[in-house]
Specification:
314 residues; alpha/beta; 9 helices; single chain; 23% strand; 17 strands; eight-stranded mixed β-sheet; four-stranded mixed β-sheet; Carbamate kinase; globular
Length: 314
Amino acid sequence: MKSSLTVLAIGGNSLIKDKNHIALSSQYEAIQETSKYIAELIAEGMRLIITHGNGPQVGFIYRRGELARHELPLIPLDICGADTQGAIGYMIQMALLNEFGKMGIKKKVVAVVTKTIVDRDDPSFQNPTKPIGSFMSEEEALTHKKESGWEVMEDAGRGFRRVVPSPIPREIVELDVIRSLMTSGYIVIAAGGGGIPVIRNEQGDIKGVEAVIDKDMGSSLLARNLGADTFIISTTVDAVYLNFGKENQRPIRRTTLPEIKQYLKEGHFKPGSMRPKIEAIIEFLEGGGQKAIIASPENLLKAVRGESGTTILR
C-alpha cells in the first residue's frame, strides 16, 4: 500500500519577502509565518517531509566571501550548501517547534544535512550555465578565469559573472536516515537546496563539487525515493499560469499530467522560473506519485483542499 506521505518544498525566495528584508532576522520572520501554514497541514494529520531552497542564501555567503577575499579564501560551493542547510534547517526547526507548542501539537522536528550524488560525467560540467556571485568587469572575469579556472559569461548585459554546473540529482546519500526518522514519527527537514552536490570519485569516495542542484529536482527525487504520494511546491505565486505576464494570462486550477506536459511543450513556462518546477513535478508523477500542488505559503491548506493553487493529477 502506498504511503500517505507528502514532500513539501519551500522556495528559497519565498523566505525573503523583498530586497529590503534580506537580514537573517527578517528571514526568520518569514520562516515563522510560513511555519504557521505548515503547522496547519500537520494539524490536519498530514505526514510531511520538508525541503527548502537556498539560492539567495548561497548567493549571500558567496558574496561575503568575495568581499573578504583579500583576507580569506573563497568558500567552496558545497560548503556554502552545507552552511545554508544548517542555518535554514535550524530556523525552520525552531519556528515549527514554537508553533507546535502554541497549537498543542506533540511532534518532534529534525534537520538532516543532506548530500546528493550527481554523475561525474553530467553534461553540465562541460557546459556550466548557472550564474552565481557578483557582477564583474570583463577584465576581472578573465583574470579569475586564468588564475582560478572559473568559467565566466556575460549575464543579460549587466556584466560578467561566474557560471557553475547544475547537474541532475541522482541519489540521496542520507535517504535511509531520512526514512528511519520519518518512520519514527519525526517531521524531517532534508535535501535543502536540492542537497549538497557530491560525486563518487574513481576510488569510490564521496567528494564535494563546485556546482548547484535545482532544489525542485532534488525534492522530486527525494519524494520518489520515499514513495510519497503528494509533492507540494510552495512558491511566491498563487498558481501556475498559462500565458504568464500577458494580457490573456489565466491560472490553471486543476489539470492532469498529459495536459501539463502539453503546456510545457507549448512553451508556457519560463526557464529559471516555473519550468523547472513543472519538470520536477512531471518526473514525480511519472515516477509513481499521485498528485502535485503548486501554491503560495499562505494558501497551502486551501490548496490541499482544492480551493486554491494548482493541482496536477497523474
